[in-house]
Amino acid sequence: MLAAFLPPYPFRSVPAPYLWCYYRLLCEWATESCMFITGRDYVRPIEQWEDRWECTNDAATRLNYALPKNTQPPQHHYAWLDKGRFDEWLSIHNSNPLAVFRHFLCERDNAYEEELHEMLCSAPNKIEAVITFLNVPSLSAVCQRLGIPVIHQELGPLRGHIYRDTAYVDFQGVNGNSEAENRECEFRGWSLNSLNELKLNDLLLFFLKDPSFIKSLPEKTSEIGIALQVEDDSNLVAFGNGMDNQSIILAARNQTATSSLLIRPHPGSLFTLREGIMPIDESPTSLEFVARCKKIMTINSSVALEALLLGVPVTIFGDSSLCHLAKEIPHSLSLVRRLTFYLFAYLVPRSCQLSPRYLRFRLSEPGEKAIIEYHLGCYMRDDDMTLPEESAFEDLQTKLIAQVLASNQLRVHRNERLQALTEQVHVLSQELTDVNRRLVEEGEAHGHAIQVVEQITEQFNTLSKQYSDTLEELHLRDKKIKECDELLNKIRNNR
């Protein structure tokens, strides 16, 4: 039995803070009997929520779930967490919700561990693993004691609308305490020079949905770009190493003039920057923002990965699964090798993220080679590409290089064809518009001609009637004249 841990505590003044995760799990685990360690708010009928973005069709489409008709399916087992514990933590931390959040993410709590231990032991079947969307030391400690793996999950750094959707699946932590570097260091599947046929541009092209997007990137205009983050995000609260949005702006201003900065606010931020004080980025995408900058500074934003892919130097102040990559020289063979592992072994196609089949595959402790091939196979199927036989390649890196380059070439070709077809459709649309315009003009002329004919016909009919009436009147007059002539003749004869 798989289990999911979804805390109910309103760390950011929102009940059921991982509601979209719950809805997605209901879809992914629809044919399973699973356990949810959570709060009762999660199973409230959708109709009872007001203004929750998770309950919109747009959010459901974007995050790959369907809005549930039954928010508490009978096949699942539920263990309800004591929501009142949050108030106890608040009283300890001076009524500061973010301090409570930091405690929850970074520290163990004996009383909480007893509650979790009791719940996990109450499961009707053996728990294969517990899924969590944030680091919880107390949960990890209890699961370690019970021999239950903990799988940390989160949306990946590459997401739509311009990238293939990715996710984090980490058995150690997410962002903070990540296993990314250790896994890569232990992997001996390829040598430093084995991937010299790949370039950063090839990796970027592979993960872009539209390969032509890279051709429209802007030129560099700023010395340092600063990627800000949501102020109460767990990455800043627990893994920012003391840095916050204001601190990173000050750090950048110590390196260059304010006019040489470019600051990109996070769309989910509670605050806005004052216009005119510092240059604010208004690029449609974060990749375009990175392209405008000679260097990127961030606490632990996923924008760091986009900087690495573009070969832009990046400074990461907080804890992140990308910290070890940021130390590499841009465009170096070492960076390409390590980044390739990160992209294809550590990051997971989002379609796999919560799939019971994939989770059990990972729980079977496969080697990195098998994980890479699994992920690569998912991406190839997304591209509608036929996977080659195993014997077609001598080793893993040769296979990976071949499939990445083949996918890029195929998608570039498809994009060119699509662009050509789009242009043809545009031309045909213009021609159709012209034809419709001419038809309208001819129709208007035809309508005018019909109107003139109708007027002439009406006049003709009027004249015809007048002619007929006049003719009839003349006949009557002729008749009367004839009668008069006959009468005169009679009179003459009588004389």
Structure commentary:
- 48% of the residues lie in helices and 9% in strands.
- It is of the alpha/beta class and 495 residues long.
- A 7-stranded mixed beta sheet has the order 3-2-1-4-5-6-11.
- Helix 8 (200-207) crosses helix 17 and helix 14 (333-346) crosses helix 16 (368-382).
- The termini are far apart.
How much helical structure, as a percent, in the residues?
A: 40-55%
* Weakly predicted, low-confidence segments: none
Distance between the termini: 139 Å
Instruction: Give me the strand/helix succession.
Output: EHEHEHHHEHEEHHEHHEHEHEHHEHHH
Class from secondary-structure proportions: alpha/beta
Contiguous helical run count = 17
What is the subunit organization of this protein?
single chain
Give keywords:
single chain; 495 residues; alpha/beta; 7-stranded mixed β-sheet; 4-stranded parallel β-sheet; 48% helix; elongated
Task: Please provide a brief summary of the model.
With 495 residues, this protein is of the alpha/beta class. 48% of the residues lie in helices and 9% in strands.
Topology of helices and strands:
Layout: E1 2-5, H1 19-28, E2 35-38, H2 57-62, E3 77-80, H3 85-92, H4 97-106, H5 110-121, E4 129-132, H6 137-146, E5 150-155, E6 166-170, H7 180-186, H8 200-207, E7 224-227, H9 234-239, H10 245-253, E8 261-264, H11 286-291, E9 296-298, H12 303-310, E10 314-316, H13 323-326, H14 333-346, E11 347-349, H15 356-363, H16 368-382, H17 396-494
Parallel strand pairs: 1-2, 1-4, 2-3, 4-5, 7-8, 7-9, 9-10
Antiparallel strand pairs: 5-6, 6-11
